[in-house]
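Hi team,

Filling in the usual template for the complex we talked about on Friday. All components are listed, including any nucleic acid strands or ligand strings, so the model treats them as one assembly.

SUBMITTER: L.P.
PURPOSE: interface mapping
COMPONENTS: four
RESIDUES: 694
SEQUENCES:
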Amino acid sequence: MQLDERSKKVLKAVILSYIKTALPIGSRSITERFDFGVGSATIRNIMSDLEEGGFLTHPHTSAGRIPTEKGYRFYVDTLFEEEAFLNNKNSIMMEAEQLVQREDASLLLQDTSRLLSDLTHYMAVVTAPKIATAHIRHIEFIRLRANCIMAITVSEAGFVQNKFFDLAKDISQKSLNDISDYLNNFYQGMTLQGIREKLMTQMEKIEDLYDHLQTEAFELTKYAVGDMMEGESGELYTDGATHIFDLPDFSDRKIMKGLLEAVKEKQSVIQLLDKYIGSKGVQVFIGSENRFLGNHGFSLVVSQYKRGDRVLGALGVIGPTRMDYSKVIPLVDSAAKQVSRLLEDLS
Amino acid sequence: MQLDERSKKVLKAVILSYIKTALPIGSRSITERFDFGVGSATIRNIMSDLEEGGFLTHPHTSAGRIPTEKGYRFYVDTLFEEEAFLNNKNSIMMEAEQLVQREDASLLLQDTSRLLSDLTHYMAVVTAPKIATAHIRHIEFIRLRANCIMAITVSEAGFVQNKFFDLAKDISQKSLNDISDYLNNFYQGMTLQGIREKLMTQMEKIEDLYDHLQTEAFELTKYAVGDMMEGESGELYTDGATHIFDLPDFSDRKIMKGLLEAVKEKQSVIQLLDKYIGSKGVQVFIGSENRFLGNHGFSLVVSQYKRGDRVLGALGVIGPTRMDYSKVIPLVDSAAKQVSRLLEDLS
DNA sequence: CTTTAGCACTCACTTCTGTAGAGTGCCAGC
DNA sequence: GCTGGCACTCTACAGAAGTGAGTGCTAAAG
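RESULT (copied from the run log):
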């Protein structure tokens, strides 16, 4: 279905109004609040056409119109082409520059989620990279007590993870230090998977002459790496969940509760974000376009951040479907870029 | 003011009813639902007396009575003396035994908060010990990049903390390992404060012959310890915040939002719990007895957990003032004991 | 053919009113 | 001291009526 210029303008007017007030708007109010130079009856006809095209609905016969998801989708898609929208980016990029370097990358992600939620007044979510796929800068083992050790891994991007293991065999701290040194010297910058594979081929090659250290390092690493790689689905940083209380959209407690619980459980949100982690640039998911967001009136604006060519995680904003995309989209975009930039700087 | 047996029974009846239904109850309903063997008019007179004594109120002239904070206080205080209440503990102690050993003590606290909130359907909060006062089992330094290191401390109780430092001088990983070894060998089991002091006197004593290692260890530790001790207010583990959605008590969004935000900020909740960390056994704070809980209808049941004689943190339940104290109090009590027991076992 | 004004109609929201129900307070009698 | 009875109070609920914003349709004007 093709829309002429005027229809687009009317659609946009309805959406803008609904973004602001969350109230249905009628033809009369449109002629009053926006200057189209035509009467309300004309607007009425246009709105009727838009409804037929699936861009608008009305909740009941005598109510004003509200946008459908298709309407939002159209709005968002055309938004990307508009100049005014691109100009908007500049001022918002300034905001993203509030994000500054942190020793610990997870603090940076925390900052990011706070910034996003503060600026949008919606909920922000940021996933941290999975340790399984990270490139390791440093690995360290600490003996906590007999048969129990802790592994600390620091990724190149600056993410730290602690992990606990029960071992069949007790290993002294001294040996652990040696193993750590060995790994750090010869396997730095590789992924856990890579380390494991290299250790394995190493073992096969020099089967009879490998020294004691390598065997232990291998055993430990095999175990530790295996454990680290499975299950762990990375971390989720979130902020601004309570903003949903301020939205008139969600009067239903169940929906609010559902969202908060989903975010608390983290699992489903991480899956949601990671699913689209491959796609380039900012992605917008409107309402039921995504199963997780369901039919509860939520939308998601998400982008990925990276280090070099490597995508590390995703960050985004979850808000009501009637959120102000023209502000949120460039914000998410520049936040993602700023995070990438900052992670890059960590040498 | 003294209450006779019958008045106490009526008060208890009102409270039990209100705990269940959150609805005001009148004299007639009491005679129907409880068997006092007297007419409603008599109950009416008793209730009138109780109101005069400040144990009950009614929201408006022709509504039933509801307990005041003083009423709850009286109820809770007498509860501690009752046999039936103590018997209740046995079944609830079983629940607390669901808590099992975890390599990482913070996981245990996480489990605890989940258990408490699951069993009570209220919100659970658990504070972790401050690293500043913890006895250190192991300390490790990792060089992240030039002039930036990470310190990992493991306390005797099994709590791990990572901390980042920027240093004026760059130290090699090798030196850091030596320093770690040195500290772990000679200062294990002390608090950060203790380590610092001992290092200081050590330096003074053997001023001219201390070796290179000790100087570096001292410098680093002085810096690291100082940084670790200040500001850091420990961690807060929380669960079940969304349960407040299910309570009919809080129809006001602002109150819900306020509570969730307070818990998210953690600071004030930690202060609240730590304030009463010294007091022995279970403590109950009803409504405005505590500033944080304010006049929003919340109460707090809290107890401390320890390792040996040393109090490490506090755990508790935040619920509506009309919460079921006879279940929550013994639960918090036995959870605290179970956590203490499990932390003890960690050798 | 497009646009417009006018008109009848619809539906949610608000206000008002009456009633039922639960509760209180008080009093006289047991 | 306890109780039944009675008048009174206040909420919650339901129906009635009015209001306002909006729609769809139609006929006339541009």
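MY TAKE: The longest helix of chain B spans residues 325-345. Chain B touches chain A through 37 residues (CB under 8 Å).

Thanks, L.
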